[in-house]
Amino acid sequence: MAITPINSTPTSSSTAGSAAGVKATKDDFLKLLVTQMKYQDPMNPMDSAQMTSQIAQLNTVEGINQLNATVTSLQASLMASQSMQSASLIGKTILADGNAISLLNGSANLSMRLEGAAESVVIDVINASGRIIKSTDLGASAAGIKTFTWDGSTNEGGTAPNGQYTFQVNAKKLNQAVAVTPLTQATVSGVEMTSAGPQLSLNNGTNIALSTVRGVR
Fold first, then answer.
1. 199: closest CA among 185, 211, 187, 186?
2. Is 26 helix (H, G, I), strand (E, B) or coil?
3. Cα-only R_g, the chain
4. What's the pLDDT at 137?
């Protein structure tokens, strides 16, 4: 007597189902299997390989449901941990991926991470119109995180108004470009929980993901 195959690939609805539902299905299957064995035709016995395959499929489905439950629990724990970590950053100055800066009262801090030593490091400050208004050559610099304070002065000799700017960094050694990552230095003013994870609100008017934070000062 043949046993009806059971699909081992769970659909979204079966995956979301409870483990109790899988157990009930397994119990029903075993009851049916015992009944079939009891009343099987002696001249045409059940295929033991097929029986073993069906039991293995049921165990696989049950294992997948248990794994999904474990992953869901881990995700909840991770979100709770990230929430606490994010809240502890409020009021602190962080370094994160990004090139936004805020000029206030003639001062703005620019940070970067040099991946190697450079013979020349040039910082360009860019206004909202996309124009370079200040270029500064810092000279030679070792690898690592570096910070530069812009005093608001411009290439024309004037002073830039308070507001939001961006910057870019060009580093070279032996006329070859050195990899450099601009870093936003700002104070965390708030935290927002989203489906993609915690988002930090900064005092320069930008929002960043917690995962982009590279340092706390």
1. 211
2. helix
3. 31
4. 94
Average pLDDT for 180-188: 90
Collapsed DSSP state (helix, strand, coil) of residue 40? coil
Angle at 31 between CA 30 and CA 37, to 5 degrees: 85
Cβ–Cβ under 8 Å, residues 207 and 189: no
- Which residue do the tokens 């608001």 mark? 152
Nearest residue to 165 via CA among 125, 203, 136, 202: 125
Question: Could you say which DSSP state residue 160 is in?
Answer: P
Look over the chain and give the mean of its residue pLDDT values, rounded to a whole number: 79
Q: Which residues of 125-142 are buried (b: 16+ CB within 10 A; e: fewer)?
A: bbbeeeeebbebeeeebe
Q: What is the 3-state secondary structure (H, E, C) of 74-134?
A: HHHHHHHHHHHHHHCCCCCEEEEECCEEEEECCEEEEEEEECCCECEEEEEEECCCCCEEE
Is the CB of residue 150 less than 8 Å from the CB of residue 110? yes
Report the pLDDT averaged over residues 78-92: 75
Q: What is the DSSP letter of 212?
A: G
Higher-confidence residue of 182 and 5: namely: 182
**Distance set, CA 45 to CA 1, 24, 71 (Å):** 7, 26, 42
Q: Which two tokens stand for residue 143?
A: 């690898």
Q: Is 168 exposed, middle or buried (0-12, 13-18, 19+ CB in 10 A)?
A: middle
Structure tokens at 126: 């860019």
Dihedral sign for Cα atoms in the order 3, 4, 5, 7: negative
